[in-house]
Amino acid sequence: MTAQIIDGKAFAASVREKVAGHVARLKQDHGLTPGLAVVLVGEDPASQVYVRNKGKQTKEAGMLSVEHRLPDTTSEAEILALVETLNADPSIHGILVQLPLPEHVNAELVINAIDPAKDVDGFHISNVGLLGTGQKSMVPCTPLGCLMMLRAHHGSLSGMDAVVVGRSNIVGKPMAQLLLGESCTVTIAHSRTRDLPEVVRRADIVVAAVGRPQMIPGDWIKPGATVIDVGINRVPKDDGKSRLVGDVDFDSAVEVAGAITPVPGGVGPMTIACLLANTVTACCRANGLPEPEGLTA
Ligand SMILES: Nc1nc2c(c(=O)[nH]1)N[C@@H](CN(C=O)c1ccc(C(=O)N[C@@H](CCC(=O)O)C(=O)O)cc1)CN2
């Protein structure tokens, strides 16, 4: 039996539609326009595409989009000064500094300079602590997108065995916290995990976020499990061009899993949709309004 494909592109479109509805109501009922500022330092080609798409989708949802594109010679002090300006700007409800930053910049310092209430990436240490202790926080976009898809597919996740393969601060760790919040039994696996295939085989939910192309084959997957593939790896093709693959070997996993996200078109599109959702949430919180339903963790 082949798995159900979880269509992240379609799901992201439905999230963006909800966001646009909330934005229209905020404008009409409260005279508010949520504003998102994105800071890009340097010329990383993939980051340029992501930032362009963020700006485009922000505007399409009816929000204010501000972009700051800085050369890779920009000093840490200049970036920190820009963050301070954005923190103080009442028209900006969300601030995102695109990662990776150039090597001479301390990314932690920059992220922790963002007002936690405007930290729509959920990377600020205050938001990390709030999420880790089950309190209201800004939730990182990629894990939030994964959670939305899992909830839509399963309803309740309570009691399920989940394994998160990968322990990064921006995906693995917050994903594990969110699954724990749903009352899953959560294992965080990584490169040093003993007998990784056996650990993955026990899971009803597998979130692959390890950054290694097609590392998880179908025979590691428990029959019927739900597989969420966060990996976005560019690999060479025979014709000299390249293609994107996930951390899961899709062709073998699709024969075993109950449901699976493809790459591309799975988790990736949800990342930007959830950024828009977080910006609306930040705007509502800043103005003492109720949280937008269906857009938060
Ligand atoms: N400050 C941040 N930096 C980065 C984040 C982040 O969440 N915050 N995440 C990634 C990049 N990223 C968003 O910034 C992102 C990655 C991938 C996609 C996406 O839609 N992927 C498509 C494929 C796109 C392609 O063809 O290359 C897909 O999977 O279908 C969106 C956003 C690192 N930096």
UniProtKB/TrEMBL annotation:
GO terms for cellular component: cytosol. Residues 140-285 form the Tetrahydrofolate dehydrogenase/cyclohydrolase NAD(P)-binding domain. GO terms for molecular function: methenyltetrahydrofolate cyclohydrolase activity; methylenetetrahydrofolate dehydrogenase (NADP+) activity. Residues 6-121 form the Tetrahydrofolate dehydrogenase/cyclohydrolase catalytic domain. It comes from the Bacteria. Pathway: One-carbon metabolism; tetrahydrofolate interconversion. GO terms for biological process: L-histidine biosynthetic process; methionine biosynthetic process; purine nucleotide biosynthetic process; tetrahydrofolate interconversion. Catalyzes the oxidation of 5,10-methylenetetrahydrofolate to 5,10-methenyltetrahydrofolate and then the hydrolysis of 5,10-methenyltetrahydrofolate to 10-formyltetrahydrofolate. NCBIfam families: PRK10792.1, PRK14186.1, PRK14188.1. Belongs to the tetrahydrofolate dehydrogenase/cyclohydrolase family. This is Bifunctional protein FolD. It comes from Tropicimonas sediminicola. The gene is folD.
